[in-house]
Write the structure tokens for this entry.
Amino acid sequence: MDRVIIFDTTLRDGEQSPGFSMNTMEKLEMARQLARLNVDAIEAGFPISSDEDFEATREVARQVGTLDGAPIICGLSRVGLGDIDRCWEAVKYAKRPRIHTFVATSDIHLKYKLRKSRAEVLKASVEAVRHARGYCEDVEFSPEDASRSDFDYMCDVLSAVIDAGAGTINIPDTVGYAIPQEWAERIARIRERVHGSDRAVLSVHCHNDLGLAVSNSLTAILSGARQVECTINGIGERAGNASLEELVMALRTRKDFFAVETQVKSQELFRASRLLSHITGVHVQPNKAIVGENAFAHEAGIHQDGVLKEKLTYEIMKPEDIGRASNKLVLGKHSGRHALAARLKDLGFDLAGGDLDRAFRKFKDLADRKKEVYDEDLIAIVTDEATQVPETYELDYLHVLSGTGIVPSATVRLRKEGQTYQESSVGDGPVDAALNAIDAIAGLKGRLQDYAIRAATSGKDAIGEVSVKVDFDGTVVSGKGASTDVIEASARAYLSAVNRLVQRAGSERVKEVGP
Ligand code: KIV
Ligand code: ZN
């Protein structure tokens, strides 16, 4: 059977959308899960865009791209030769590195953004691909805004870059403008019209502005595309990219129709989705296909009756197919270190030594406060530990006073480099008071742009997970914190944003270079 290459761009296109930025540790954690998911390629970043992105891409190449059976590790680069050099410096450590270079080919972009002629863009594309091929065998080229590009001109560019050595030509619907039938025809015509198209893998990269990214990707496969670019939970620029889990499950569930397969281990999909939500603090909507809370919940009486009699009546996929066995009671207060290690291993976290000791201490602390510990609790513990930014400020003490008829106040004590600092503040609620006290200690004035709280599991004693987005004088950073006490979780989330701000100082992202 024909195989479709799954190219994951969660860490590049996904990460570049507001509220989804990840630091190096977070990208590594996610990349490990993508490797367990067995995607073919991971686009780890856009190395020229910032030192932080360079470092994250390099670490993914070094630590994930060198594992046995590792996926391709790809970096994005504009067609500038300096961009390509920088990209290569980051991905070269991987066993299977790829350079993905792109330039816009639509007249709108040429005229208003690049201020270049068609001939100049064609020349730059060929030079870029040749230059990249000087470094590595595996080079991908994308004509940005392909869906609005002049067809013949774009095909000339594609023919020329294949001649120059591009092994994958990726057709992006950058602005999510395409309509499935039209897109299918365009992809089929590209295959016919581009010289040497039989020597390159034809790929698509669809955005979701009209809610059609998955449909467009699927129709492109019917027209011969053999790589799809996609992201976990469909995150990405604006309305996002095609959702990986939806594509994989559509191809799997309707193999009879598509007659293609992927090498993705679908049982890892749910964990990948939850890990991403946990890292970014952005959760999918309950009715999200495949991974939403309600995706397998049958509410209507008629449906429940049918499912009880025979699952096939209303279920086209099994929850186990995507690795969904959530809200399962796993461990309790009396469980030991070995039981925790074994359960974490099942969840995909292979912890040993000091890492396991720290996770065990947190687990015991949680089990003392909360009788039942679920998989989601364990994921919260481990990913918090693995993805924390260095704690310049540590929470040492928090006391809040709140209620009806009194002015909410908070006293916070923080530790920094062995010294403790304490401040008290008032606010319009206990959370506001606690955050004001943190601001007073750190000498900052943060403006909360976004605040979200959710229970990691069901039950009144569930862990509360708080995610925040804070604007510190024009620099927006996110943070997250978890505790069974939601005020403490809020203070921890805010503090992790403060710590991230401190860590970031000096390596500010260069935003203008984004595609
Ligand atoms: O949407 C887009 O055009 C892109 C390219 C860089 C592939 O993300
Ligand atoms: Zn994109």
